[in-house]
Amino acid sequence: MKAALIVVDMQEDFCPPNGSLAVQEARDLAPTINTLLAHPGFTLRIASQDSHPANHISFAPNHPAPNNRPFECHIEMANPAPGKESETKPQRLWPIHCVAGTKGAEIIPEIDTANIDLYVQKGMDARVEMYSAFADAFGNLDAEVNRSSVDVHLKGVLEERGITDVFVVGVAGDYCVKFTAVDAARAGLRSYLVEDAVRCVDPGLGWEEAKRELSEAGVRVVRSDGPEVAGLVGSV
Ligand code: VGL
Ligand code: ZN
């Protein structure tokens, strides 16, 4: 058994008090996440960062009024993969956030980044949403199109390192954390979401629905003080 920790999107724009897409209590996760980062049982510690160009499809101001209210409105998004353009999905609109190179895209200073072995930048292709650190919203994983969206082939890295178990924490529990944990399970890994180390955009119903999807995908929802984390034994 070899475990990896994936710290998802602990960036200024997702944190109060000034983040443009602040998730309630996100900054308060830092001590719990730092304790996990210091756990000797992880072979690999990864941090993902949402990293969008200014013309990203998910940014509300990039769409015409009146159907461009952030949080409330959805637009139709097409699969950017060659030959698959007729496949579309509704895409929720967000405030401008995590623009590459801006303060909002930085990991918050409360996170002990000294322990992080690998960073994954995602959401870099303006044409498509990418919540999961593995694949874009259409599941494009190895295709050329996905390489313009993400700078690391995470599934390949985890396989190369012989990782069997993945623990996912960070924000947002009902978006990037959920999709990353689901894709880890789809990649054939044992996938765990550490519930007290995540916070959600929609903490009520959003999280209840997310937990149903996680359980259907075979992701186990655990706690940082539970037996799954306590039982981790490091191996290189
Ligand atoms: C996220 C909304 C938009 C996330 C990223 O990190 O969960 N949510 N972009
Ligand atoms: Zn985003």
Automatic annotation (TrEMBL):
Pathways per UniProt: Cofactor biosynthesis; nicotinate biosynthesis; nicotinate from nicotinamide: step 1/1
One annotated GO biological process: pyridine nucleotide biosynthetic process
CDD domains with a match to the protein in the record: nicotinamidase (cd01011)
InterPro entries: Isochorismatase-like_dom (IPR000868), Isochorismatase-like_sf (IPR036380), Isochorismatase_Nicotinamidase (IPR052347)
Organism annotation: Aspergillus ibericus CBS 121593
Assigned EC number: 3.5.1.19
UniProt enzyme class: hydrolase
Origin: domain of life: Eukaryota
Family: Belongs to the isochorismatase family.
Keyword terms: Hydrolase, Metal-binding, Pyridine nucleotide biosynthesis
GO molecular function list: metal ion binding; nicotinamidase activity
Annotated protein name in UniProt: nicotinamidase
Domain Isochorismatase-like residue range list: 3-224
